[in-house]
Amino acid sequence: MSGSPLSIEIPENELVERFVRSTGPGGQNVNKVATAVELRFDVANSPSLPDAVRARLLAKRDRRLTDDGVLVISAQRFRTQDRNRQDARERLAAFVDSGLHAPKPRIATRPTRGSKERRLGAKRERSSIKQGRTRRDWD
Fold first, then answer.
1. Which of 63, 103, 120, 138 is the most buried (most CB within 10 A)?
2. Annotated region Disordered: where (predicted)?
């Protein structure tokens, strides 16, 4: 399994595939053929992931990650088992690639004088519009 030039090779023995029946429409084909793929990859205990990448992946708030650090990808977009297997592996590669790059640290900046003045001017304008709505001239 590989992705971008900075990719990580994940050996087959670290992936666990289970074939299940798909949900949704499809009639008899859905009821008798197990075309959906459930791909499991143990992120927390994988020896092929560098520690920094593992930490970034586990820190993600991804609903596909279990509490034990196992990534579960369910692929059932396509009608064939082979295409669903391929789709699950592509999604795993995309997930691992997302952990390869460290996020750039944010540099705190201060608002400029012009932006402060524009904001306050807009607030004054809005305030005068609202004040104009409340005045009543009873003649």
1. 120
2. 95-139
SS3 of residue 107 by DSSP: coil
The CA radius of gyration of the chain, in Å to the nearest whole number, is 26
Q: How far apart are CA 18 and CA 40, in angstroms?
A: 8
Percent of the chain with pLDDT over 70: 89
Amino acid at 15: L
Q: Look-up: residue for tokens 């001017």?
A: 121
Task: Establish if 77 belongs to a structural domain.
Answer: yes
Give which of 52, 58, 35 is closest to 101, Cα–Cα: 52
* SS3 (DSSP) at 38: strand
Is the residue at 67 inside a domain? yes
Which CATH number is 63's domain given? 3.30.160.20
Please give the share of the chain, as a percent, with pLDDT higher than 90: 17
